[in-house]
């Protein structure tokens, strides 16, 4: 079926231009049964208009023919959602009747050559399947066909929803700000009112009178629960004030709705007029008045005329009642504080007396203009007055101070008075009975209001005991320091003698040992082949014992040298030292499968010669105790700590009982039989001595049959 609004055109192939979503849908649509007919017979004017519509960057729709068949571009999809699917190829009156009901006359007018513009038009749109309120600015323009007649309507759409909502929000904010400004003015007037009566009834009545200037004509009442109902405690109206006592007002039932609701919810309640829906046209306000942590009553307002309470009026009421609650709460707290003031003062004085008594303190107050103390506590007792001194003055106190301390005390007291400052001193006094005691005194000058320091508060305490204790402690410390120095010197001398003795013994024992070894060899050579097997075995045992003894003496000499040699510290590359240590142990790895796993090692501070000995001893130890494994695994790595490096050596050898780990670093301490593993028991002791001299620590962990791990720490480079 073709549209009779224009004559049939010759069949010319037509492809909807572009790669947009709507172009693809139009190409896929079957137009044969639509009022527009097949696209091959569309007039050029329609084809041009469709091409312009599809290529438009803004939402554009083309309504063509007598049936106003709609054609949209992609920009319309976000606005109308999937609604376009039901309009494609169908006239607008049938596919979108609600839109036609609004703009049908205007579309007809465009067919007569008119143009229309609608600004911020409210439309119900359904993007992505939902319906929302949207605002658009629409333009309706005629599109002419080849005959010059109007063949269609071009609809341009500008989404102004954001702008409309922004203007609406600004208007609401302006109204709210105006209401807040009015509320602040009211609250300021209420707070600053020079009224002497700050009782609850007076404050409530005062606020009611102020609110008459800010609200429509009406009357205000304050309700409190009493007995089985509600009583009006204060009633004020625009025409004048009613009786405040409440005796002339009716009592309302306990379940009166407009009072019960705000009491139960704790929120303002705005009843509507009797002839309208609640909350829709509120002419009354019932607000809970909360103070001292509970709702104490209901502050009500009822408008006399037909005008409803606007949001501005409600904001003013809510702010005013909140301010009233704060004021009443403050008055309540201050009243309670005043009621407790006397009891608190008495209790405070009692506690002060107890604290001063427990601490052995005396207290005094002094008027600096008269130099007479107005009050003293335990003052007489400290100075030895059995019955109390008749009148204490500053001069009375100064006369008790020993002459050699008096000038310094008077200087500090006078300087503190001049600066309006505190003073703190200790001095000696002579009591009434003649005993000399040490006292501590502290005072604070107080400003009398005219800038002059005319009042003094002070504390005094007998500190004779602590002073004597301090003197005794100082004497004991001096004696202890002298004894520590003597013991340190004696220990150093004994240590030096012990090191010298060990070196001498080790060195001097080697001479007779060499004689035994030499004569044993000569005896073996002299006997020659005549030696019987038993004698030869005895000679071999003597030679082995001599060699073991020589190794022990050599180890003792090395241990002694380690303690005596000075440390020549500097930067040390542990990677380089490790390679030197492995080279020194080459004979111990010949013919053995050994797997080395050595991680990157840092530079540290230390003596390179001594640290090389540490690595040689630990690696040799690991090789020795892993010698019974098919393949020895020796691991070496470093772990960074905040102020040092931790170097770790681990093997897969026989391990040891961890209960005896600390014994390993003692001299001649061994955890395995000599027949199983040779050794002197000095190597690990030497390791500990070297590491400790470098400021580090050594440790060892193991389990029998599961290998052993030795570690030591060294300081980082500065």
Q: What are the salient characteristics of this protein?
A:
718 residues; alpha+beta; 6-stranded antiparallel beta sheet; 24% strand
Describe this structure in words.
By secondary structure, this protein is an alpha+beta fold. It contains 18 helices and 23 strands. The strands form 5 sheets. Strands 6, 7, 8, 9, 10 and 11 form a 6-stranded antiparallel sheet that branches. Strand 1 (60-64) and strand 2 form a beta hairpin. The radius of gyration is 54 Å and the shape is flat. The two termini are 97 Å apart. Mean pLDDT is 78; it is low at 243-248 and 274-279.
Average pLDDT rating: 78
Low-confidence stretches: 243-248, 274-279
**Biggest sheet descriptor:** 6 strands, antiparallel
Output the structural class: alpha+beta
- Measured on Cα atoms, how large is the radius of gyration? 54 Å
What is the strand content? 15-25%
State the oligomer: single chain
Distance between the termini: 97 Å
Number of strands: 23
Number of helices: 18
What general form does the structure show?
flat
Q: What share of the residues lie within helices?
A: 40-55%
List the helices and strands and how they pair.
Blueprint: H1 21-28, H2 44-55, E1 60-64, E2 69-72, H3 77-80, H4 92-95, H5 97-111, E3 116-125, E4 132-144, E5 150-159, H6 161-191, H7 200-211, E6 218-226, E7 229-237, E8 240-241, E9 251-253, H8 257-265, E10 284-291, E11 294-303, H9 311-359, E12 361-367, E13 372-377, H10 379-383, H11 394-400, H12 403-419, E14 422-430, E15 436-447, E16 453-462, H13 464-527, H14 533-564, E17 570-573, H15 574-584, H16 586-589, E18 594-598, E19 603-606, H17 608-625, E20 632-640, E21 644-651, H18 683-693, E22 698-702, E23 708-715
Parallel strand pairs: 18-20
Antiparallel strand pairs: 1-2, 1-5, 3-4, 4-5, 6-7, 6-11, 7-8, 7-9, 10-11, 12-13, 12-16, 14-15, 15-16, 17-19, 20-21, 21-23, 22-23
